[in-house]
Amino acid sequence: xxxxxxxxxxxxxxxxxxxxxxxxxxxxxxxxxxxxxxxxxxxxxxxxxxxxxxxxxxxxxxxxxxxxxxxxxxxxxxxxxxxxxxxxxxxxxxxxxxxxxxxxxxxxxxxxxxxxxxxxxxxxxxxxxxxxxxxxxxxxxxxxxxxxxxxxxxxxxxxxxxxxxxxxxxxxxxxxxxxxxxxxxxxxxxxxxxxxxxxxxxxxxxxxxxxxxxxxxxxxxxxxxxxxxxxxxxxxxxxxxxxxxxxxxxxxxxxxxxxxxxxxxxxxxxxxxxxxxxxxxxxxxxxxxxxxxxxxxxxxxxxxxxxxxxxxxxxxxxxxxxxxxxxxxxxxxxxxxxxxx
Length: 341
Ligand SMILES: Nc1ncnc2c1ncn2[C@@H]1O[C@H](COP(=O)(O)OP(=O)(O)OP(=O)(O)O)[C@@H](O)[C@H]1O
Ligand SMILES: [Mg+2]
Ligand SMILES: [Zn+2]
Description:
CATH class of the largest domain: Alpha Beta
Mean pLDDT: 91
Number of domains: 3
Bound molecules: adenosine-5'-triphosphate, magnesium ion, zinc ion
Shape: elongated
Radius of gyration: 24 Å
Structural class: alpha/beta
Helix content: 40-55%
CATH architecture of the largest domain: 3-Layer(aba) Sandwich
Number of helices: 16
């Protein structure tokens, strides 16, 4: 799997530029923080960065000349293989109770066995139960000198403020399109894949701002020998987006439903389709209001119609999560739209 094969192994391989700089600063600092909180959307490199950090502070070869892990010494190698006794990983999604946290805290009392620091990585930290948080809080208040906690979460709001305020926060946010493209190019180079820039950009734009998702799409596409941008559009389910808008413009419900049926049959993604159309409608709206002066192909819908359509399609987008039939939310939205206008 590309996304595992190309998991970053050094600070400089972290393609998220802001995070890279911040982690460098932290590692170069005189004293290390005893607790870090990695916050960000899925697939933005929190777990990868936590492991790199653990390696960087336990590597036998790097200091004082470099903060990067060497990835060759026995400490680096065993951390990469998840077999290093001084790096403890806990997945709070499945081990969230007081007992698991208590076990972890008991561990923190021990000195490192071989490394310089014991690192406790708690993934999906927001899943810990209230009792668990309470127990953890005490340890975070008076942590043993040789212990470093790295909490990772996709959901900062669910983490108690008392916990968050005791950690140094590193915000991974969403993966930026430019950063994703850098990662894709890194993989292409090493896999000897030759794709045009616009091709990679399209992948990046449809990866949900996740490095992992982008790497997965690239892998799928290369396995299926997809090389033309139009085939990629097909694969991503965004083929004929303007087509659908053109059909909607004519307000012919039969043609609309036929279009949707065909799209559905060809395996298109309704999520991507709705995202594309909403973006298109937004541009149309801004253009009508004179905010965007770019030369675009305008559609004949009125401002009122565009806003009403946007509202209906946003609702359809939300309903995608719970619908038993993928095409249904879009069909309902459009038939409502035609009824109104
Ligand atoms: N900053 C990055 N630079 C390059 N590749 C990355 C980066 N972040 C993630 N990736 C890619 O995405 C994969 C998943 O990353 P990782 O598991 O670290 O993300 P995560 O933030 O922990 O996600 P989750 O919230 O789903 O656990 C990696 O194996 C790697 O291929
Ligand atoms: Mg993770
Ligand atoms: Zn090393």
